[in-house]
Design a protein that fits this description.
The protein has 276 residues and is an all-alpha fold. The protein has helices at 2-10, 12-53, 74-97, 100-105, 107-133, 141-166, 170-184, 186-201, 213-237, 241-270. It binds protoporphyrin IX containing FE.
């Protein structure tokens, strides 16, 4: 029996089939992520870009923010404005980096949008750290530490991706760039994760002031969990058929959660996207 399973597992045709299954599941993950992040970017453009460029900063307070617009706080309001303007641009540049034809046929575009993505991710991380620790935009210290860890990971991974690209070590560059993308997607993952979890459990462990067990767990898991899945993916790519099949199944499940969470976030959080 063990010999039968072993030979079934290791034949070239089985390997080719499981590689295709993994590729298909990766495409499903990318399609769900693209749709979800485009909805996030559309909300940011329609709500924040319009309010910033029309000078109607007070409109921010129609959303349930920790610290939105504060009259007289020009440094805090300015930093928040830079943060949200950079957020949509970084999200779009990050998605562009993952489109295979862009990497294959337009390497100059890939290089320039890659630089833009990394610079904006760093601007968002440094600005976000300022919003948390200087402006005081946090509800719990655990939550503040969790988002700060995400910011530090983005800075570290982004620097590694840049250095590897300069060294022309493209295998290492791909790994660090993917880690940067996943860490920089943490704030989007947080929002869609809340919606998916709320929909599946009715909001178990979510408490006022984001102080419930789920809030504290999700603050860290929002970036650490997807990063752990990425490490498994990078190993599965080079692994055997069993690992590839398991990864493909996991990616399909994650894609469904992303899809449900993103559509739910659009309806429950981001709609109506127009600043009043
Ligand atoms: C790198 C990707 C990031 C993106 C795309 C992003 C995006 C956003 C957006 C869209 C908002 C407006 C709130 C909303 O309407 O949901 C926001 C607010 C905020 N962000 Fe970020 N952010 C990122 C990284 C960070 C990091 C790393 C930190 C902290 C270290 C941070 C801290 C904050 C804070 C404190 C606020 C204000 C929240 C409030 O007052 O309710 N952000 N961010």
């Amino acid at each position: 029996m063990a010999t039968t399973v072993q030979s079934e597992v290791s034949t070239p045709s089985v390997q080719a089939r499981t590689r295709r299954q993994l590729q298909l599941a990766t495409r499903a993950w990318f399609a769900a992520t693209t749709l979800g992040q485009l909805l996030f970017a559309a909300f940011i453009v329609l709500f924040y870009y319009t309010s910033v460029f029309s000078g109607n900063l007070a409109a921010w307070n129609t959303k349930p923010l920790i610290t939105g617009y504060v009259a007289g706080d020009s440094a805090g309001n300015g930093q928040f404005a830079v943060h949200v303007l950079a957020a949509a641009a970084m999200t779009l540049a990050g998605l562009l980096q993952l489109v295979p034809p862009v990497r294959q046929h337009w390497p100059r575009l890939h290089r320039w949008s890659g630089r833009l993505f990394l610079i904006l991710a760093m601007v968002l991380s440094l600005g976000g750290l300022w919003l948390v620790w200087v402006r005081g935009s946090y509800l719990t210290v655990t939550g503040a530490l969790a988002i700060s860890l995400d910011g530090l990971l983005i800075l570290t991974f982004g620097a590694q991706a840049w250095v590897a690209a300069r060294r022309r070590d493209f295998a290492a560059h791909r790994r660090w760039a993917l880690r940067t993308f996943i860490a920089a997607s943490g704030v989007w993952t947080m929002r869609i994760g809340y919606i998916a979890w709320g929909g599946l459990t009715g909001g178990a462990g979510i408490a006022r002031g984001m102080s419930g067990p789920f809030d504290l767990f999700w603050g860290f898991a929002t970036h650490l969990l997807p990063l752990a899945v990425l490490e498994l993916y990078l190993r599965a790519e080079r692994g055997g058929p069993l690992a590839q099949r398991a990864m493909a199944g996991g990616l399909w499940l994650i894609s469904l959660l992303i899809l449900g969470g993103s559509l739910g976030a659009w309806l429950a959080m981001w709609w109506p996207p127009i600043a009043a």
